[in-house]
Amino acid sequence: MTLEDSPARAVSLKSGILTAGGIALIVVAAAAPLGLIAGYGPLGFLVGGIGAPAGFLVAGIVLALFVVGILAMARYIGRPGTFYAYVGEALGPAAGTAAAALAIVAYLVINIGGIGIVSSTTENLIHVVTGVDVPWWILGLLITAVTWYVCRRGIDVGVKVLVVLLVAEVGILIIIAIAVLAKTAVGHLSFASFAPSNVFTPGMAAAALVWFGAYFGIESTTIYRSEAKNPNRTIPRATAFSLAFLALFYCFVAWAIAQAFSVPELQAAIAKNPTAMIYLIGDHYVGPWAGLTAQTLLVTSSIASGIAYFNAVSRYGHSMAADGILPGSAMRVHPKFRSPSFGNVQALIMAGVVLLFGLFRLDPYLQLTVWFSSPGTLGLISLMALASLAVAVFFFARPREGLSTGRRVFLGIIAATAALLLASVVILMVVNIELLTGAGGLLNTIVVIVPVVIFVVAFVTSTVRRRTARRNVDQTVPVPEGEGA
């Protein structure tokens, strides 16, 4: 055993423990299907209209272009597990460092924002079932501790927990969707959701944040490369399965929900209380137990998503430390479970934010979730666009071993197209930022500016640091005799 692998100085993650199915579970759990359908689904229908089911398919196609480029480039770089590895390889080390800073902050704030959702949902569920009021921030601290404990026990333990939670939330959505279709006469099933006139509308463009937010986590498959079995095969399979499953699943469930709008009394109830859409539909088509079960599983869905994001952030921290961007201490792992010690720092930050918001009596959803998830969402999609640009530059720049000119150009075109489409999504989100935040004025300005500021500051800092280091090296190089002044 070397010093690096000794229990006191362990820095390497547990290798060869994740299968394609295990990684796919992490990705799908991060997307939180029930949380997405119940939380953001109503917004998709309200803004996008009846074309909402097709919105998920369109987003899936765009992201398919994104992952094709990322996976193709992964073969040619040494550490293909993170966004910044691709950006740094193609666009320079300063851009890579800036991408790393934005990525870890984006993942972290999205995870913190998720604590607001799960805390408020749990608080409401406890009140409905028992009549007892438990402060949301106490629940938030408890959920943070549980998430940390599960993730600290190792990625394999986290996957086992995710299997149970994910099967439950997917199961209730399928039950509700099938019940709706079964009780809708065959002749009355509508396919208007897929008509071009209902898909390509201003409302659908404005709701892009819903369609693309539904796939958050799909970009993280390569983060688990060092822990995967046969990563060259496992990672592409996990990515393809995750993307295909989410696209078809979201589209199917949303299409079934669209049929429910044909019931006048149900349509009126949803219009009055849009956020209760999935619960109302469950009550109407399946029975009261389905609505209560969906509310309960929304809590577990949010916890599952939190576990997946927590794992992603801690591995980003580990990777950044290995590349010298963060202090070396962040590269250490648990001597037994081989989970990144950076998770300890992450848990403390999350708990501190929850406690702060609780002490100041701020709203867990309207303030904690909105203030943190909004810039994180914008930053993550911006990074996807930047990574696609990096892939395009990489393949267009020069010949690559094992690739014909035609295939190299084809991959470059695919990546450039993905970059253009994702950049368009970012622009749509900025233009329609009020739909994401539900607020106006200064808050929207902050949400838009924060990701830009993080990237620019990290880029400038990295550039200055590298130039200073280069200048110091030049000054310390001895001048041979006979040269110089």
| Largest sheet features | none
Beta-strand percentage? under 5%
Mean pLDDT: 85
Shape: globular
**What value does the Rg take, in angstroms?**
23 Å
User: What is the count of DSSP helices, taking H or I runs of 4+ residues?
Assistant: 19
List the helices and strands and how they pair.
Elements: H1 20-31, H2 33-48, H3 52-74, H4 83-91, H5 93-130, H6 136-152, H7 155-182, H8 196-199, H9 202-206, H10 208-213, H11 231-260, H12 264-272, H13 277-285, H14 288-322, H15 342-359, H16 364-397, H17 405-431, H18 433-437, H19 442-476
Helix pairs in contact: 1-7, 1-11, 1-14, 2-11, 2-14, 3-11, 3-16, 3-17, 4-5, 4-16, 5-6, 5-14, 5-15, 5-16, 5-19, 6-14, 6-15, 7-11, 7-14, 13-14, 14-15, 16-17, 16-19
Description:
The chain is globular. With 485 residues, the protein is mainly α. 74% of the residues lie in helices and 0% in strands. The longest helix is centred in the first third of the chain and has 38 residues, at 93-130.
Q: Could you provide a short overview of the structure?
A:
This protein has 485 residues and is mainly α.
Key structural traits:
single chain; mainly alpha; 485 residues; globular
